[in-house]
Amino acid sequence: MDMPKHSDEAKAHFRSLVTAAPGVEVKPMFGSLGAFVNGNMFAGLFGPNVGVRLDEAGLAELRAMPGSGPFGPEGRPMGGYLSLPADLTDEDQSTWVDRARDHVATLPPKVKKPKK
Predict the structure, then answer these.
(1) What is the pLDDT of residues 3-57, one digit of tens each?
(2) pLDDT given for residue 113 in this prediction
(3) Cβ(51)–Cβ(43) under 8 Å?
(4) Cα-flanking dihedrals φ and ψ of residue 55, to 5°?
(5) pLDDT of residue 3
(6) How many CA atoms lie within 13 A of 41 on its CB side?
């Protein structure tokens, strides 16, 4: 599976979509970036696509928008995530990213496994 390389501009754009909030951090992930709240990923960058993790109602709403689609490697998309339509404004993309953050913040915090 080929992992896309991201330009500094693409990474900066992704970071600009993530609103600062308690427990939120953007971290490198497989040569790309992921946005996490309390250790759980809520948004990511894969190729040109920004993907978000939403509840079923949010996924259905986003799925109905032209230009949305699977998120992640072709043939192995990430379950529970969809790519945002590329033609959305930065403001609209940020709104969806915030919505994903708010949903994922309701999940139990990820507990780090102790190092052996």
Answers:
(1) 667 788 889 999 999 999 999 999 998 778 999 999 999 999 998 899 999 999 9
(2) 77
(3) yes
(4) -75, 175
(5) 65
(6) 16
Residue pointed to by tokens 């990474």:
11
| 99, amino acid identity | R
User: Mean pLDDT over all residues of the chain?
Assistant: 91
Whether pTM exceeds 0.85: yes
- In this structure, what token pair is assigned to residue 116? 């052996």
Q: DSSP of 26-88, one letter per residue?
A: EEEETTEEEEEETTEEEEEEETTEEEEE--HHHHHHHHTSTT-EE-SSTTSPPTTEEEPPTTS
| Residue 43 CA neighbour count, 13 Å, CB half | 27
**pLDDT, tens only, 100-112:** 999 999 998 888 7
CA pair distance 116, 52, nearest whole angstrom: 32
Question: Are 42 and 36 in contact, with CB atoms under 8 Å apart?
Answer: yes
Whole-number pLDDT of residue 47: 83
Per the structure block, which two tokens stand in for 5? Answer: 């390389």
